[in-house]
From TrEMBL, chains A, B:
InterPro entries (alphabetical): FAD-bd_OxRdtase (IPR050260), FAD/NAD-bd_sf (IPR036188), FAD/NAD-binding_dom (IPR023753), FAD/NAD-linked_Rdtase_dimer_sf (IPR016156), Pyr_nucl-diS_OxRdtase_dimer (IPR004099)
Name of protein: FAD-dependent oxidoreductase
The Pyridine nucleotide-disulphide oxidoreductase dimerisation domain, residue ranges: 343-445
Cofactor: FAD
Organism this protein belongs to: Streptomyces gibsoniae
Length: 465, 465
């Protein structure tokens, strides 16, 4: 390890989770005499929890500032030169510099780097539809987006919200708008919400959402967004080929794509999902002094062996930690993901990890699927709530491939058992012997995950080889 | 595999979790033409949840019968000849028979077996103290014990309860008596409750119990139980050398020992903790046709490599399942435990798995211990509750050795993450990359277990090698 004493400059593009975690960790390892850190953020906020936006909009979190983990001033106090409202418009890899533009003044300048971190995040998918840019149509990807939505709600008397899309953002925003007292319609291209679940589990979510008074419109492709005739030409409805759904506000929750236009223009390697490709140290492939992490990269799925794009704050923070350690002269890697995600709609908890049936098929795997019903606590204990667990195991090997859980209190975080088992490449037979916490207030004597593992092990044993 | 067509007889001693799980599983695999099953239970109840007794006594569970998973009649309907109130008084290994006595009539008879399952459970430790057999002094090991306690409470106007011992049973019974409106004093030999935790974590439990209005008397050895002068000579106080604690009822929660007097008399192998020793198929060592499981056996601790005695319904059920499979002609093993246990005192959740510091020292391991404070949910999310996590990791290897968690909602079952990681022999560094479920209602962006793993990994890296 060379111990250069010359001062280097680290440039970070993006002031949220991955970028600022990387900057902070690098700063912990190298002081300002040895490493200058300049970070650019085009928005108004740094280091905030984008995942918290639905709860802020819905009123569970009372103020925007509570979502901010560290303000620009706090970063600057740690000798990180964070330049807000400053958008990087070009990466010049050959000369090791970036061009940045002050969003307000339009002034541009070049900043050279010795080391570069690209943490440009993701952008919400905005379908190319007539009317999609009308006032009252909102994404909820950034804190700026969330503020714009709240301002829009405050300015509009109507109480009808249409959410387009029924993935995590869609269902969380549906809950948020129900909590705000809106009539909510979810228009969803798939045949049930939560395409990250297998269809039978998604149907449980659909039923629960309808039970909350949300109008679910599945198998429906939005083809147009209709606007009013007034001066503002504000949104008035969402249209499919079959119907129109009146809307005072429209929230786009269709999903996100890696924000990699800059990286692509600079000739950096992108994967099939449009995300930057890195090695396990989060170094951009083929570029010794460029790292990338967070919502703009693709990650290795340890179960299928394929690359995926997953926009999730917990990964972004881990990436930032790994990048900062490596930039700061240490060594760390991010081995990959198993695809864990948890969510809720009011008191319905939703969790998944590993492969769905369609992922397993796509990866060429043969598998057995079992579904069991159990309860969150001993059946005789107060508030024992039903829980449905689906488990996939590979034929022959019996290796755990995936778990999905839908239930009430205590359902979501149980998926962590499977997340660790997937990481350890356990078989479902091995899982039947897991020494999981048992006491009547916390679990039946056979934890629901153990019940599923027993049934999956039996299915594997009986399956044709 | 030989497929004998002659009819065999399986005798089961003990009609609770391990014994009846074994009987039921054996019955699933072999029909009555091939396997006769006779089971003996000395009490009034079969297949009940002993772990549920504190919640029944405390009023959370409204009826005794709700704790019964399967009645004697239900077992008999499945062709299991379950003989209640019938105590086995001798095992004659040489001639393959057991002697049983009808508890009510005193009549005795011999029953021969081809295969034997010993599931005699555990008995509560009753210290050899003056007065310990007085009316008003109760154990809570069996459903019969629980009924006797409730009858005793109904017959006594006083509202002062003294709980002797502060392990799982002690703290759960302290909660139960608080819930019944009693003034509760816990007299505990150790310097804090929950000796299954390291002292710093036990002190958190102590503080919480005091906060609930429970009088905690630690470092106190009970030397006598004082009785009244009335006709019944009912208990009136618990005495130590230093003080007396007035009591209208006394609950012994000192712990349990394997109930192996019968096995010992028959010359079967016992371990250092007094439990039967079996192989991993739960077959009693050296005895081809005798199996044992549940609270009367010792189990392998997969972390320390030592044998332990752990009385816990979830292990008993697994043992029964394994025994029944083997008795029924299949193949199954119980690989061992990692020592997971969860409990609660009102809304304080308590969890542990793996080794405490003193276990690690005893096993000759060098280790690093870290303690972190975090929250159950994102800090900005409503009802985010504090959580303390202690983590032990082995020096040099970085292997996870143990985790203890004390907190509010969401604390206890988080220990399952560590239970699986221990089983998989993960290092704390590997754990830092675990893909655990994250969403603001369920976890901070770094789950508390990940925060502890990061700190533990750093401690291992810095420790002398």
């Amino acid at each position: 390890m060379s111990m250069s004493r010359t001062k280097e400059r680290l440039v970070v593009i993006g002031g949220d989770a991955a970028g600022m975690s990387a900057a902070s960790q690098a700063r912990r390892l190298k002081d300002p005499d040895r490493l200058e850190i300049v970070a650019f953020e085009r928005g108004h906020f740094s280091s905030y929890s984008a995942c918290g936006i639905p709860y802020w909009v819905g009123g569970d979190v009372d103020s925007r500032d509570r979502l901010i983990a560290r303000t620009p001033e706090e970063h600057r106090a740690r000798a990180i030169d964070l330049r807000m409202r400053t958008e990087v418009t070009e990466i010049d890899v050959g000369r090791g510099r970036v061009r940045a533009r002050d969003v307000d003044s339009g002034a541009e300048s070049w900043t050279s780097y010795d080391k570069l971190v690209i943490a440009t995040g993701a952008r919400p998918i905005r379908p190319d539809l007539p009317g999609v840019d009308a006032p009252g149509v909102h994404g909820v990807q950034t804190l700026d987006d969330g503020q714009a939505l709240l301002d829009s709600l405050a300015a509009t008397p109507g109480r009808r919200a249409v959410v387009v899309g029924a993935g995590y953002i869609g269902v969380e925003m549906a809950e948020a708008m129900i909590n705000r007292g809106y009539e909510v319609t979810v228009v969803n291209r798939g045949s049930q919400p939560m395409a990250t679940l297998d269809p039978d589990m998604g149907r449980l979510v659909n039923r629960a959402m309808e039970g909350l008074g949300i109008t679910m419109v599945n198998d429906a492709e939005v083809t147009k967004i209709l606007t009013g005739d007034g001066a503002g030409r504000r949104v008035r409805a969402v249209g499919t080929d079959a119907a129109e759904y009146p809307a005072d506000v429209v929230i786009l929750g269709i999903g996100v794509r890696p924000e990699t236009a800059l990286a692509q223009a600079a000739g950096l390697p992108l994967g099939a999902h449009g995300g930057l490709l890195t090695d396990l140290a989060m170094r951009v492939r083929g570029h010794e002094n460029i790292w990338s992490g967070g919502d703009c990269v693709e990650v290795l799925d340890l179960v299928s062996g394929r690359m995926r794009h997953i926009a999730l704050g917990t990964h972004a923070n881990k990436h930032g930690q790994v990048i900062g350690t490596n930039v700061g002269g240490g060594y760390a890697t991010f081995p990959g993901v198993v695809g864990t995600a948890v969510s809720k709609v009011c008191d319905l908890e939703i969790a998944r990890t590993g492969l769905r049936e369609k992922d397993a098929r796509r990866a060429g795997l043969q598998y057995e699927t079992v579904v069991i019903e159990s309860t969150s606590r001993a059946g005789y204990y107060p508030d024992a709530a039903p829980m449905t667990v689906e488990m996939l195991a590979e034929r022959r090997t019996g290796r755990l491939l995936g778990v999905q859980i839908v239930g009430r209190e205590g359902a979501a975080k149980r998926v962590d058992i499977a997340a660790v088992a997937l990481t350890a490449q356990m078989t479902v037979e091995e899982m039947t012997a897991l020494d999981l916490g048992y006491a009547p207030p916390f679990s039946p004597v056979w934890d629901p995950v153990l019940v599923a593992a027993r049934k999956a092990a039996a299915a594997v044993a009986k399956a044709p080889r």
